[in-house]
Automatic annotation (TrEMBL):
PROSITE patterns: PPR. The lineage of its organism: Eukaryota, Viridiplantae, Streptophyta, Embryophyta, Tracheophyta. PPR repeats lie at residues 71-105, 106-140, 141-175, 176-210, 211-245, 246-280. Keywords: Repeat. This is Pentatricopeptide repeat-containing protein At1g62910-like. InterPro entries: PPR/CCM1_RNA-binding, PPR_rpt, TPR-like_helical_dom_sf.
Amino acid sequence: MSMPVRGKGKKDHHFDNVDHALSLFNKMIEKYPKPSIVEFNKLLGAIVKMKHYAIVVSKYRQIELLGVSHDGYSMSILINCFCQLGRIDFGLSVLGKMLKLGVEPDVVIFSTLINGLCNQSKISEAVRMFDEMTEKGYQPNLIVYSTMLKGLCKTGNTGRAVRFLRLMESRGYEPDIVAYSTVIDCLCKNGLLQEALNLLSEMKVKGIRPDIITCTCLIHGMCNLGQQEEATRLLNEMADNNISLDIVTYTLLIDALCKEGMISKAVQIVDTMRKQGIEPDVVTYNT
């Protein structure tokens, strides 16, 4: 797809791939006087959308050497690129440079850095940045809260994740199905099944309908604790409520029942699958 790069008062530039974009970049740096950082941002921002992050970093370094000064937007692009490249340390350096220049980071920059820290399992640093963000008066959006929740759960910070869920609510953000499922999965993986079921009940009271991810997490948790009958009841309840389950969820439970020698119950689950229009595959039969 051709991507436009809009110049102020000029004809739009179009290019179909990164080579065309780089050709335009080379033409821009040959001009005198040099185009403004705004024009470079438009071009390099389009290259970011193509996911050529290392190229963007390299080109910003090149224009710096040519005397083109950064602005807040160019630094936010750089922070995003460094985070995408797994170089959160460089992203934090750019943040430091912004602060020294008196450029206030916005919620997008904080969100990008928090995501980068969480992706590298640097949860304590992510929490500090979240606190710094709120202290500066920035209101985290749902994306920031979801990123923090995912990071806390990924690193097994179950208690913190539950507290963070409550923090969201206290600040006026109602957790959605994704937030609840993320925490339920974390609780189940840590053997805290009752706490996970309590969250499931809370969801239902709020009118949030469990989905396939929620159900699979709970069924997996029940099976891991040897609660195959409870898992069977949950699966049947979900099927009765027309919650679409997939072959993975069914096979998970069938495998657990077979391992416990509960063959007749496993056969019943296969029948339930078929009633739902899901045909067992070779993995199910091998189970």
